[in-house]
Amino acid sequence: MSQPSAMKPDYRNWVSPRLLYVAGAGSVVFAGLSFLVPWFAILAVICGASCAYFAYARYQFSSRGGDLQPKVQALLLDGFEWDGEGKAIDIGCGSGALSITMAIKYPDAQVTGVDFWGGSWEYSKDVCDCNAEIEGVGDRVAFQQGTASSLPFDDGSFDAAVSNLTFHEVRDVKDKRLLIKEALRVVKKGGAFAFQDLFLWKQVYGDVDDLLAAIRSWGVERVEFIDTSSSPFIPRALKLPFMLGTIGVLRGTK
Asked: Could you tell me if residue 4 is inside a domain?
């Protein structure tokens, strides 16, 4: 299936426009209130700086700016040890970028993308389906709604599993390690996995060595951690803990 020349996939942006709207609106409101109560000016400056930061981040992630999204995504698949035979799952597929990349890279694979597609994001199943058709892999990629905290699949349903910057966003599970365990549940014994998230953010995941020990205690055959936060293409301004400053990849064999 060839890609229509007049159409391009739209993978949207990892920085939600809501962040800009909220910070910008807060800056305007507090600036107005500062005429009544001067110390509100401090909050106006903070909100204004936040709006400027998120606007910068959104530009860097966009294809017209730094085009960071595919570069960060590539860190996940670099060294991924899977032969591409069978079925793969992309947990938290968003706009379908990673699912589609998997289908393109592994022409014999069937890929399932799962996402909750909450209202905070510009993503949806329709966006994913459209992107897959444009990229010519619509017959080998399927998308469905689901949550990473309780995947709608039986144990061992997939030969491989991937996830990119999703687990820390799941709100209904406090212990994010349980999301890794749930992701591994649907992988066959001997299957491959690669998950990228804010694994170096100790407030979220604790110590990396403890995290690896926990994963091994679940009977996983092999797991290793790769620090991707130091990748040279990541701008210094985006190396904050909640952005790309604490990212890393967990990969291995179940």
From this structure: no
46 lies in which domain range?
A: 17-61
Q: What is the pTM of this model?
A: 0.92
Q: Please list the residues that pair with 143 across neighbouring strands.
A: 113
- Which tens digit of pLDDT belongs to each residue from 235-246? 999 999 999 999
C-beta of residue 13 within 8 angstroms of C-beta of residue 143: no
DSSP 147: B
Answer yes or no: do 159 and 41 share one domain: no
The string of pLDDT tens digits covering residues 85-128 is 999 999 999 999 999 999 999 999 999 999 999 766 778 999 99
Q: Which residue has the tokens 């400056």?
A: 45
Contact 154, 131 (CB under 8 A): no
The verdict on residue 9 lying in a domain is: no
* C-alpha dihedral, 201 to 54 to 132 to 129, nearest 10°: 100
138 exposure class (CB count in 10 Å sphere: 0-12, 13-18, 19+): middle
Residue 89 CA to residue 142 CA, distance in Å, equals: 10
C-alpha to C-alpha distance for 171 and 202, rounded to whole angstroms:
17
Residue-wise DSSP of 78-143: TT------EEEEEET-TTSHHHHHHHHH-TTEEEEEEE---TTSS--HHHHHHHHHHTT-TTTEEE
What is the DSSP pairing of strand 248-253 with strand 187-197? antiparallel
